[in-house]
Amino acid sequence: MTDPIHRTPDDLSRLREVMRRLRDPGTGCPWDVQQDFDSIAPYTIEEAHEVADAIRRRAWDDLRGELGDLLLQVIYHSQMAEEAGHFTLGDVVSGISAKMIARHPHVFGDASRDKSPDQQSADWEAAKAAERAERGEGGTLDGVALGLPALMRAQKLSRRLARVGFDWDDADGAVDKIAEEAAELAEACAARDGDATEAEMGDLLFTAANLARLLGVDPEAALRRTNAKVVERFAAVEDALARDGLRPAPEHRARMERAWQEAKG
Asked: Which residue stretches does the UniProt record annotate as biased composition, category Basic and acidic residues (predicted)?
């Protein structure tokens, strides 16, 4: 009989068998065998970001590969969970299928489909809130994952707060708050108080995430855009310095600033 890992079925059986063998204590890969949930979690986060990057670049061949890498993470965690007696991959698939069906009664049940996208989003959030209540997460901010990137978690927290009315009336209120937080940050810096400086910087960034929400701006996307702009402009700065026979260095700060302003156009 042909070894299942040398077949190419269009389901997950081959990949599951590959992972099972990699994790086999007697015959598997020593590196894979010694991994646990904590050691693999950073790779899971990294692969999710690489999926998003491929989408932003519209690199569809890359996306296919990155989705495979992300799928491997699901298989990896499920295999470790099965070994520990927690759950199986089948439980994962069954659970998410049931969740999607329950959250879409307008598709899988008798609920009306005659709703706006905003109403559908509100229904989705209501369903999630009910699920959190069933898990005993009764607080407004319960269940917002600690492992999210801090800026993304700040926006999720602020959305939860806004739903219960703990929010500014408009973006102007958040702009005023940013000015207040910036002043407090300046005071902490002037006092050379490291702990207070960190705390005030956090307050400023959280308020900025709130302002982004009120303006309908994705702060992660906005910051990625600025990061890309900085990379592009500083490449122009390096080119300008190279034409003068120079390289970036502290003693060339004034020349770099002029080149930066020229790159801005």
From this structure: 125-136
Question: Do residues 49 and 16 lie in contact, with contact meaning Cβ atoms separated by under 8 Å?
Answer: no
Q: What is the CATH number of the domain that holds 44?
A: 1.10.287.1080
Give how far Cα 89 sits from Cα of 12, 80, 102, 136, 208, Å. Answer: 10, 10, 20, 25, 40
Assigned domain for 242 exists: yes
Task: Identify whether the C-beta of residue 108 lies closer than 8 Å to the C-beta of residue 101.
Answer: yes
What residues make up the domain containing 231?
A: 223-264
Between helix 194-215 and helix 150-163 the angle, nearest 10°, is: 60
**pLDDT for 35-82, tens place per residue?**
999 999 999 999 998 999 999 899 999 999 999 999 999 999 999 999
The Cα 165–Cα 199 span in angstroms is 25
178 inside domain: no
Q: pLDDT tens digits for 171-188?
A: 999 999 999 999 999 999
Nearest to 219 by CA among 261, 157, 129, 168: 157
Residues 6 or more apart whose Cβ sits within 8 Å of residue 72: 15, 19, 47
Alpha-carbon distance of 128 to 143, in angstroms, equals 10
Q: Is residue 154 part of a domain?
A: no
Domain presence at residue 89: yes
DSSP per-residue letters across 201-254:
HHHHHHHHHHHHHHHT--HHHHHHHHHHHHHHHHHHHHHHHHHTT----GGGHH
Q: Which residues of the chain have pLDDT under 70?
A: 1-10
